[in-house]
Write a structure and sequence with these properties.
single chain, de novo design (two linked rop proteins), about 75% helix, rod-shaped
Length: about 180
């Protein structure tokens, strides 16, 4: 009788551990997915803001159409890209947007325009939010990856289909200063 109770207790403890670890893995995966979706919310806001910014700049700059066309093309590319290509396209767009702010230094009328200043401030705030969201996503992905790879939760992760998550990485080009030439 006491053996049966001991075996039953062991089965219950192992079952509780399995359930607890599985639920932890689900919670971590869902948290990382939510963090990634938050990045998409901010990107959508940025996509919506870019045409207004471009139209405002067009009114002040006569011969910067190639820069503006590049931003519009990168916006379209980023909106349609997904997965790893999406991250690279987003980084290219971020880099191109930095050049827009550098353009304003060469156009005093544009720099003084209230609409441009408001759009610039909104875009800067969005860029900061995107960066915070990327960092939060990477932290969530790190937590998920730790749980998937570390013993003993890795014994449960594999059979139940939990896998490593990719980090949102910055390309080398994104870390360099923007150079604007005329």
């Amino acid at each position: 009788m006491s053996r049966l109770i001991i075996i039953l207790l062991i089965v219950v403890v192992v079952g509780l551990y399995l359930m607890s670890t599985y639920n932890k893995l689900v919670r971590l995966r869902n948290g990382a997915e939510e963090a990634f979706k938050s990045i998409n919310v901010f990107l959508k806001q940025r996509y919506d803001l870019i045409p207004n910014l471009i139209n405002t700049i067009k009114g002040y700059t006569q011969y910067e159409s190639s820069t503006l066309e590049k931003i519009v093309a990168l916006r379209s590319k980023a909106m349609s890209a997904g997965g790893a290509d999406g991250g690279a396209a987003e980084l290219q767009l971020s880099s191109a947007l930095k050049s827009v702010f550098a353009l304003s230094e060469n156009y005093p009328d544009l720099k003084a325009n209230q609409e441009f200043l408001q759009l610039q401030q909104t875009l800067s705030a969005l860029e900061e939010s995107i960066q915070r969201s990327r960092r939060y996503y990477n932290a969530s992905a790190r937590d998920m990856n730790n749980a998937v790879e570390m013993f003993p939760s890795n014994l449960i992760a594999g059979p139940f289909g939990f896998h490593r998550m990719e980090y949102f990485e910055v390309e080398e080009a994104e870390t360099k200063n923007v150079k604007v030439e005329f």
